[in-house]
Task: structure prediction
Amino acid sequence: MKYELLGTLRVVDGDRHSFISAQKVEILLAALLINSDHVVTADHLMAEIWGENLPRRATAGLHVYISEVRKFLGRPDRAEGPIVTRSPGYMLRRGSDVLDSQQFLELSEAGRRHLRGQRFEEAIDSFEQALALWRGPVLGDIGQGPILRGFATRLTEQRMDCMEMLVDTQLQFGRHRELVGLLYTLTAENPLRETFHRQLMLALYRSERRADALKVYQSARQTLIDELGLEPCTPLQDLHRAILRTDHQALELRAVAVAV
Result:
């Protein structure tokens, strides 16, 4: 069985894809999956489901939702369900079941190791496999509790890191023209992420679009000043100066400088 959190929460069992329609039950299962093989206290689970405004019978409500999750995950070929009661709360035992978020982290780390070893084709393959696991925002943006929100923030940041490493590696293979469209989208969606602006400038310059590369810098600089009152980071400024000087050697060095 596979639990998928990188998008709307669903459980995949062979050819069967199962979803939970009741949001509070979905939040409960997500909180247990994020902390799989660890006990989550009843207090933390109730806070995740209801926030600070607990209903009068919150404990009874939690018991009902736990029962619903157990029914949802029950399988006739399994003697025991994965949800167990462990004082002071509950635990989801994952066993041999797969979690797509864990797969993502393992593939991303494998790509990082390949990159350190200068095995660039293997790195690209690992990063692409990792990113292909994403079907949308983490857990479909359900819930505002600390467990789900913290998990979503952490995984989203790691997804951006993975994307940055993939693009840097692809630039080493001279795929600058193919990357321009993607990087325009990434900079529009993440205007304060300076790495994407740097990568777009480099891709444009190497595509014989020097003027466009300089426009990207000016736009990025203005956004950073307007939003944060900050000048661009040193690598972005250095790349800007290198393009102004048409410093081929410096630009080529930046094309293969990948931070891991």
In short: Residues 253-259 have pLDDT under 50 and may be disordered. The domain at 175-260 is CATH 1.25.40.10 (Serine Threonine Protein Phosphatase 5, Tetratricopeptide repeat). The chain has two domains: 2-97, 175-260.
